[in-house]
Amino acid sequence: MYSERASRLPDAVVWTSTPAGAGAGRVLPDGCMDLLWHDGRLLVAGPDTRAHLIEAGTSGPWAGIRFHPGTLPALLGVPAHEVRDQRPDLADLWPTAEARRATTLVNAAADPARGLEDLALRRAAEAATLPDPVLRQVVAALDAGRPVAETADELGLSARQLHRRSLTAFGYGPKTLARVLRLTRALALARRGTPYAETATRTGYADQAHLSRDVRDLTGLPLSRLLAADDGGLV
């Protein structure tokens, strides 16, 4: 069972999930990063370039905060590309004492989701580095389907500068981010019943075959099977 709500942090979502059944789960790439709690441990869900499979038999509740693309690395003090396609323990990213204090704070809360919020709010207040305001413009432009080169020009950045800042904030270059965001838009349309050919046209794919290839590459499943699947909660 999965549920979510708006967080007290701007542009973040708090969610909880208890996997149902023994089957493997599938988390799709969406450009976001999450701070996670499970079984008393704190983990970081790095930016995914492909579907992340949750091991079959994983049990017990999860809690998490999903952050808008580009915002969590500044709070963590860790470049996004260092955790790309990974789910490391927070203790592997922070000094031992700091990670232990954070884990104690979350575990002492009335519920883990609230504890994660308290931790993130504290980090936001203490962060020496704030999220780069240009990053929000990058996400908005690419999510609107603007070409990468055009986006860089409008922001006064060279292609190399945009790529370097994207690696730090998003975990991969702007072309990959644009591809992931386009997938998210396409799946949202397809899930509402929009015909596949129309979905492809409206989200910037060359044709339905292009959409199908991209969905399979990024999710590991054909589009029709992906939409029919019930993969459980997100982690």
How would you sum up this structure, described in words?
Helices cover 45% and strands 14% of the residues. The protein starts with a strand and ends in a 7-residue tail after the last helix. It has two domains: 2-126, no CATH class; 133-228, Homeodomain-like (Arc Repressor Mutant, subunit A), CATH 1.10.10. The chain is built from ten helices and seven strands. Helix 4 (133-143) packs across helix 7 (174-191). Mean pLDDT is 92; it is low at 231-235. A five-stranded antiparallel sheet has the order 1-2-7-4-5, covered by helices on one side. A two-stranded antiparallel sheet has the order 3-6.
The secondary-structure element order is EEEEEEEHHHHHHHHHH
Mass-distribution shape: globular
Terminal Cα separation, in Å? Answer: 12 Å
Query: Rg from C-alpha positions?
Result: 18 Å
The order of strands across the largest sheet is 1-2-7-4-5
List the helices and strands and how they pair.
Layout: E1 2-6, E2 12-17, E3 25-27, E4 33-38, E5 41-45, E6 52-54, E7 62-67, H1 72-76, H2 96-108, H3 112-126, H4 133-143, H5 148-154, H6 159-170, H7 174-191, H8 196-202, H9 208-219, H10 223-228
Antiparallel strand pairs: 1-2, 2-7, 3-6, 4-5, 4-7
Helix pairs in contact: 2-3, 4-7, 7-8, 7-9
For this entry, give a set of tags.
single chain, alpha+beta, Arc Repressor Mutant, subunit A, two-stranded antiparallel sheet, 14% strand
